[in-house]
Amino acid sequence: MTSAVPTRVRVDACPGALQTHAAADGGLARVRVPGGALSAAQLRVLATAARELGNGHLELTSRGNVQLRGLPAGAEVELGARLAGAGLLPSATHERVRNVLASTLSGRADGGHLDVRPWTRAFDAGLCTDPALAELPGRFLATLDDGRGDVTGLGGDVGLLALSPDTVALILGGTDSGLRAHPDDAVALALAAARAFLAERAAQGSTAWRLTELADGPARVAARLTRQNGHFGVRGDVPVAPVTGPVGAVPQHDGRTALIGVVPLGRLSADQADLLAGLTAEVQLTAWRSVVVPDLAEDAVDDAAVDLFRTGMAFDETSPWLRVTTCAGRPGCAKSLADVRADATAAVRSGALPADGARQHWAGCERRCGRPQGGVVDVVATSSGYRVEED
Fold this sequence. Notes:
- A 5-stranded antiparallel β-sheet has the order 1-2-5-4-13. Strands 3-14-15-12-11 form a 5-stranded antiparallel β-sheet.
- The chain is an alpha+beta fold and 391 residues long.
- It contains 8 helices and 19 strands.
- Helix 1 packs antiparallel against helix 2 (75-85).
């Protein structure tokens, strides 16, 4: 059945590092981090920028990106220069469209068929060197899944899912397109799919921000690709992403250990960022607002965990911080009716969360910004308090 083509009245104003959003507490900049991969040096640059230009914190997003808040007018110029110097801004024209999620610990730990880190680098490079792809909406998302199924179900527009060490499925709008590629050709197919989205959007006269907003988007984009360079395999079920990512100590293939900590409400202080940068050569940010500290020697794991735990990070899979998210709330958002971060924090610390283990998303208004995928209990601020809505 053909779905109606939505009409986007608003221009896509998704914030970036250079095109900031004017929030109630100052400018908001969003720095894209493809695959969530940050070197220690890059993390230090972000921490310093948060201290000197923003409010002293970095916000982790559900796409593995980073936000800085509280920026004064004009600070995006200085921020852009710092990011470019750190290699975090490879293309000023494409910086808002570099939304790429990659499997956590791919290539380092069990669970996948192959290492998607080379895909991440190649996809980002191909994206930035194609002038046409600068026209992608700021909400367009690519997912690169090594076969463990952790990011495929997170609502990507274009995705790659390894089915075996030598076969990759193309995912379009969360569904299996039937198109297959060898791992060496998979990135080229994903980039072709992004171009096909733009071509189909133009053909429909659409203003869609996401592939599923097009009329029969996945099928029509797949048809374009099939006519160009593809062949169909057998369609399969797309894995459903876990509601929370891994947490705690994870053994690596090389005998070292990766430590994964959840950042409560995704709010990382500049001091925490500096501490993380001192522990390892690189970190990976995840879709679950956690941070992976890989490549730790066995005798360094406990000390690192204790140091990070003292700053508020959680490493226990039963921690309530794994199942609570919020929007920005007051004072950052003028539309919010409450300081939801403070209220959610008080609920966690008082043990007031329900004992059934359900996830909660606290929102300052009916827009429910930042609501995660999957089953969630909504705690929505109203003029007379909070309203709880079961999923």
